[in-house]
Amino acid sequence: MVALPETPPAVRAAIVAEANGRPLEKINRVPQLEGPLFRAYISSEAGPQLLTVNERGQVIDNAVVVRFEDLPPVVQASAKTGVTGKVQTCRKSIHRPNLTYVIDYLLGDDEPAYALIEANGFVRGLYGYAEDDPD
Prior knowledge:
Elements: H1 9-19, E1 24-30, E2 37-42, E3 49-54, E4 59-66, H2 73-81, E5 86-93, E6 100-107, E7 111-118, E8 123-128
Antiparallel strand pairs: 1-2, 2-3, 3-4, 4-5, 5-6, 6-7, 7-8
């Protein structure tokens, strides 16, 4: 986890603009080959909005929480059968050109992961939540 003042200025500006006065729950710095990504969890009534920004402040993804019941039926079916895990939080990406859903899961008893599921139900991928862990 990193504090907002520890992020690059462009990242900080993008996060502050999107938060628009709402509190930040946390920011994770995620190393990637092309440079770090910053995942900011912004408080909202329905649950934390997930904003992903690259080190230049470019928004990579912006996903708002939606209820499972409000997902399209084909996405619900994929979320239930496409990944073996307990559904935790559902988000709809409002930034990607193709409508995509980000579904948080709990694998086993304690391993958080998320899946990207397209509007047609195709599971694009399953990813672990990597954090700044040197192990």
